[in-house]
Amino acid sequence: MISIPVSFLLAALFLGLLLSVVFWRGLPRIARLCFALLLALLVLETVFVGLRFAFGIFSFLPLQRVLPLWIAPLAFLSFLSLTEALERLRKSFLFHGVIASVAAMLVLFPQEARVLPDVVIALSFTAYAVLLARHWHRGPDELSQIPVQLTGRWHRIEAVVLATMIATLIVDGGIAVLFAHSEDRAAAWLVSLATLGLITTVAAVLMWVNLGAKGGLRAAARPALNGGNEKIVQKAHSVLVEQELFRDTGLTATRLARRVGVPDRELSRAINAGKGQSVSQFVNHLRVEEAARLLTTTDAPATQVMEKAGFLTRSNFYREFQKRYGMPPGDYRKKMQAAD
């Protein structure tokens, strides 16, 4: 049956992502732990699904029913860990851990007292999809615990996770209806097709996330500029330039806000009001200007220019430079040299 290779292929994909996250040093340690645990649970869940629908092995059915009750909160907490420091996360971990434990007990109760598992799982995914949507809606600057040049990418990843949770709700609803009408074979095929679709979607999304979306996924509402916001923007610009903080590839919105002396969200609102940009765009603007200066005044190769200007990856450097000057760094250097 097609569900065997497809399920295990998806499990292998999740395993590869798990290994990538573990060694991604741009993420805080607690975030790496959360995402690694989330992906580990996804590996187990897809394996159990394959065993159930392909081999008819139901020994792991209780675990298969319980794991989604931990997957949904972990998805939310993983992105929350990109927003808040560990000290502020402890209460959230405890609160959502208790909720997941209670939901798991409801599912694992004896048959005569057990709440319908599909209903409990659907409620869990719905609740955490709403929480994740609210978190995503705050914008990329909310992800203050990671380098500013990574916030746009992880904001897009968050949107993908949110869309996947919603799609899962729809597919699981269809599977439940098929089982209710004793259409076990049709349910197995729906699982297979959904899994194949998820594999295709993940592959396409990985390319999209790496390429980036020009201007972001949505245009944030620009608040009115006032004197306080203007002073914050000026202070942020001074800190970045005079202290050459923009050169730091590990710079986060939280660190910049501390240097400026304001909370993260106040800094984000001020820059959005004054410049119509996110914090990452504000910082990258300075980095691109410095890269252009280095390309014009030095013979350093593009890789060194990228590093000196503060860019973490070559793809991000070329994308931001192209957006600002309408050409790659090499072409820009040739144009400036010809003009001289």
UniProtKB/TrEMBL annotation:
<feature type="transmembrane region" description="Helical">
    <location>
        <begin position="6"/>
        <end position="24"/>
    </location>
</feature>
<dbReference type="Pfam" id="PF12833">
    <property type="entry name" value="HTH_18"/>
</dbReference>
<protein>
    <submittedName>
        <fullName>Bacillibactin transport regulator</fullName>
    </submittedName>
</protein>
<dbReference type="InterPro" id="IPR018060">
    <property type="entry name" value="HTH_AraC"/>
</dbReference>
<keyword id="KW-0805">Transcription regulation</keyword>
<feature type="transmembrane region" description="Helical">
    <location>
        <begin position="93"/>
        <end position="109"/>
    </location>
</feature>
<keyword id="KW-0812">Transmembrane</keyword>
<feature type="transmembrane region" description="Helical">
    <location>
        <begin position="36"/>
        <end position="61"/>
    </location>
</feature>
<dbReference type="GO" id="GO:0043565">
    <property type="term" value="F:sequence-specific DNA binding"/>
</dbReference>
<feature type="transmembrane region" description="Helical">
    <location>
        <begin position="157"/>
        <end position="180"/>
    </location>
</feature>
<keyword id="KW-1133">Transmembrane helix</keyword>
<dbReference type="InterPro" id="IPR009057">
    <property type="entry name" value="Homeodomain-like_sf"/>
</dbReference>
<dbReference type="GO" id="GO:0003700">
    <property type="term" value="F:DNA-binding transcription factor activity"/>
</dbReference>
<keyword id="KW-0238">DNA-binding</keyword>
<feature type="transmembrane region" description="Helical">
    <location>
        <begin position="186"/>
        <end position="209"/>
    </location>
</feature>
<feature type="transmembrane region" description="Helical">
    <location>
        <begin position="115"/>
        <end position="136"/>
    </location>
</feature>
<feature type="domain" description="HTH araC/xylS-type">
    <location>
        <begin position="235"/>
        <end position="335"/>
    </location>
</feature>
<keyword id="KW-0472">Membrane</keyword>
<feature type="transmembrane region" description="Helical">
    <location>
        <begin position="67"/>
        <end position="86"/>
    </location>
</feature>
<keyword id="KW-0804">Transcription</keyword>
